[in-house]
Amino acid sequence: MSFENALYVLQILIAIFLILVVLLQVKGSGFGQALGGADTSYRTRRGLEKTLFQLTIVLMGLFLIVAALSVRTA
């Protein structure tokens, strides 16, 4: 397996994990909020929700780095 192919596989895996983490975060949105309704309650993230949020940021950064590397090698 070449380095270029390994980057493509890594990018696909990171994208799948990023999608899963984002989908796990959407648990609190109701139907009214999905249609544009306002949510006036602001709260801090704690526990698993905070961990998922931080993992999303890390995965997004990794995805961008791998995407930049794969463009450079192509």
Structure overview:
By secondary structure, the protein is mainly α. It has one domain (3-73). It is 72% helix and 0% strand. Helix 1 packs antiparallel against helix 3. The longest helix is centred in the C-terminal third of the chain and has 26 residues, at 48-73.
Features of the shown structure:
74 residues
Q: List the secondary-structure elements in sequence, H or E.
A: HHH
Give the radius of gyration: 16 Å
Give the helix/strand class.
mainly alpha
* DSSP summary, beta strand count: 0
As an assembly, this protein is single chain
Helix content: over 70%
Shape: elongated
Average pLDDT level: 84
Number of helical segments?
A: 3
Low-confidence stretches: none
Q: Into how many domains do the coordinates divide?
A: 1
Largest sheet: none
Structure summarized in a few sentences:
The chain is an all-alpha fold. It has one domain.
Secondary structure layout:
Layout: H1 3-25, H2 31-34, H3 48-73
Helix pairs in contact: 1-3
